[in-house]
Amino acid sequence: MTPIERPSAGPGLLPKSSFQLLLDALQSQGYRVMGQRLHDGAVKWDDIRQVSDLPVGWRDVQEPGRYRLEPSDSGRFFEVVNGPESVKRFAFAPREPLLMIERSHKSFRATPTLPQVEKTALLGVRACDLAGLAVQDQIFLHDAYPDPYYQARRENLFLVAVNCARALSTCFCASMNTGPKAQAGFDLALTELEDAVLVEAGSQTGQDLMQRLPLSPASDRPLAEAEAQMEACAKSQTRRLETAQLPQALYDAHEHPRWDQVAARCLACGNCTMVCPTCFCHTVEDAPDVTLQRTEQARVWDSCFTQEHGYIHGKNIRPAIKDRYRMWLTHKLASWVDQFGTSGCVGCGRCVTWCPVGIDLTEELPALLDKER
Amino acid sequence: MRPAPAAPSPNPYDLHAATIVEKVRVTEDIDTVRLQLVDPAVRRSFRFQAGQFNMLYVFGVGEVAISIVSDPDEPQVLDHTIRAVGRVTKAIRGMGLGDTLGVRGPFGRGWPLHDARGKDVVVVTGGLGCAPVVGAIDYMFRRREAYGAVTILHGIKTPRDLLYRERFEAWRRHADTTVLLTSDQPDKTWHDHVGVVTELFEQVAIDPARTVVLMCGPEIMMRLGASVLMQRGVPATALYLSLERHMECGIGLCGHCQMGPYFLCKDGPVMRYEQVAPFLGRPGV
Question: Which of A235, A256, A285 is a domain's end point?
């Protein structure tokens, strides 16, 4: 995080009719601007060149096992809250080549393949996903072995957060203290109001970018409007996760009969781990070319729901789906706290939405902590 | 927004070429492979502790985590005892003198052999998975005067599973050393104890106040072993275990080697019993 060195100019207002100027300013600073765009009935991160690239006129409706886009006449730029992708892939790539290894005589030579990354501005990062990125930073940058591949990608991100104005039925960031307001880790944070967008800086780079925009100082009224909007969003959340007894209570629930019930529904498809903004498991593959003289070693996202994840010479530590769901949830909500000092869950609700059978961890956790059952 | 810049560090994925300079067949499917790092500068700066492991890489096939069993004071060569059970280990089995492997490491935490100086050491091993502890035993016998009484208890299923028979016999000849073997499915050739390894504790004198225990083998065996030793008064803090899980990175990032809150690659593979007691032998952990 780049601290703000100069005194902050304070939040400013950008008329919505001038929002293109923000895109232009980012592009003129050499950023590839990416945001959520309509794609296959959902949204995914893609290039945003003009305001009309944003999914204006649509809103997402999410429930356990269900995602739909519906027309909306609000005219808001950021009414679609999220899609299956968090921002994880921009730092922890789904497939990251690590080494190029070339044969020479009987030996070989390995060359690290650090990614060449263009400066990228992500427009519309939600508070939960910023929190997810902070969790990943802890793992890949601040643990025993800082990861240079992750670092190369991470250093080139400019993060434009959007404070949430509406919550999905699957959202529970308020109970995880990660949202709906972006708290830290952004360069700019936007709050979309009726006629204007409130812009705040969270870093020196963000501050510098603000100087390039024709902002008018924000009076108390829009600031109050923004606060009220976020407060209403937090209050509208119906799901929550009670984490006070964690991690120990979940370790203690290892033999709870509820695991059998959830395992009977779980397909072990791994969707929850693929959409999760914090899951970091990966496997390393070797991909030789046809000459067998060169091979690329790469890491690829893995999931603790696969057969292979718990394999060790001739036996599987977690042969049953029950073992794997228990591993996932116990890691996410309990051992993660011991490992990294924070929960592995940021309350984005994606694992609930994108589970084909609608397994809902906010329903599973209380059931697992209920000693009567 | 960028996180605080991390200090430049060596790329933990970079690997170094190493030549197979010796290969000793232990059994039908186990070899001890001696490696020498090719780059003289890398070779000179390589240091490790008994119980640590390397990630060994076979060109075009992949990597596998294997403990280093040779002496840490002679890091110019690195011995790895490897059982051919998976893709990579089978490929290593097919390699010969002069062939090249990749080495990344060393990783993890080793045995507390420095802290064990001046104390009695009880080594409890079982099954086939005793390679990580063989390095520790060799280490102690090469510095025999630094340690008190050494007791080696080894349990196997059938006599066929006894690797290193001649090593056990050689260890037996050291002063102030007890070596006891047991098989719970013996045949006519078996002249040692019959039963499980924990029964051997009854045959040995243990001074709980000055004993350090090193264990390696099936988790159930280690859990029972720890329980019996603690009944004999050995404090839980004196018990150390080498544990095994699948590892793909060696640096605590790939997620495969978790046991409860621990990543065995960086928090282990040698763990204090107290750390892992709640998770040991627990199904699905």
Answer: A235
Enumerate residues 246 to 275 of chain B having a beta carbon within 8 A of any beta carbon in chain A: 246, 248-249, 251-256, 258, 260-261, 263, 266
Angle between helices A321-330 and A361-369 in degrees, nearest 10: 90
**A214 and A124 within one domain:** yes
Burial of A26 (0-12, 13-18, 19+ CB in 10 A): buried
Residue range A146-184, pLDDT digits in tens: 999 999 999 999 999 999 999 999 999 999 999 999 999
Note whether residue A294 is domain-resident. Answer: yes
Tell me: do A281 and A307 sit in the same domain.
yes
Verify that A20 and A148 share a domain, yes or no: yes
Specify the fold of B16-107.
Answer: Elongation Factor Tu (Ef-tu); domain 3 (2.40.30)
Q: How far apart are CA A236 and CA A13, in angstroms?
A: 26
- Whether A228 and A252 share a structural domain: no
What is the overall mean pLDDT for chain A? Answer: 95
The tokens describing B28, both together, are 């039908």
pLDDT tens for residues B203-237? 999 999 999 999 999 999 999 999 999 999 999 99
Range of the domain at A70: 12-235
Decide if A320 touches B, using CB distance below 8 A: yes
CATH number of B120-279: 3.40.50.80
A26-56 confidence digits (pLDDT tens): 999 999 999 999 999 999 999 999 999 999 9
DSSP code of residue A196: E
Task: Answer yes or no: do B2 and A1 touch at CB < 8 A.
Answer: yes
Cα B118 from Cα B96, distance rounded (Å): 41
Taking the CB of residue B134, how many other CB atoms lie within 10 A of it?
A: 22
Q: Cα–Cα–Cα angle for B267, B273, B275, nearest 5°?
A: 50
Whether residues A116 and A181 fall in one domain: yes
Q: Shortest CB distance from A281 goes to which of B14, B38, B256? A: B256
pTM, two decimals, is 0.94
Is A196 in the same domain as A344?
Answer: no
**ipTM confidence:** 0.93
For chain B, the structural domain boundaries read: 16-107, 120-279
Q: What is the pLDDT of residues B127-156, one digit of tens each?
A: 766 788 999 999 999 999 999 999 999 998
pLDDT at B1: 57
Number of domains observed in the structure of chain A:
2
Distance from the first to the final alpha carbon of chain A: 46
CA-wise closest residue to A35 among A93, A79, A96, A72: A79
A165/chain B closest Cα distance in angstroms:
22
Instruction: Provide Rg for chain B, Cα atoms.
Output: 19
The closest alpha carbon to A149, from B130, B75, B30, B251, belongs to: B251
Q: Is the distance from CB of A189 to CB of A202 less than 8 angstroms?
A: yes
* B25 has a pLDDT exceeding 80: yes
Q: Is B260 left (phi over 0), alpha (psi -120 to 50) or beta?
A: left
- Same domain membership, residue A174 and residue A30: yes
Query: With an 8 Å Cβ cutoff, are A285 and B62 in contact?
Result: yes
Report the relative pairing of strands B270-272 and A216-217 from DSSP bridges: unpaired
Q: Is residue A304 part of a domain?
A: yes
Q: What is the mean predicted confidence (pLDDT) over A297-303?
A: 97
> Within a domain: residue A242?
no
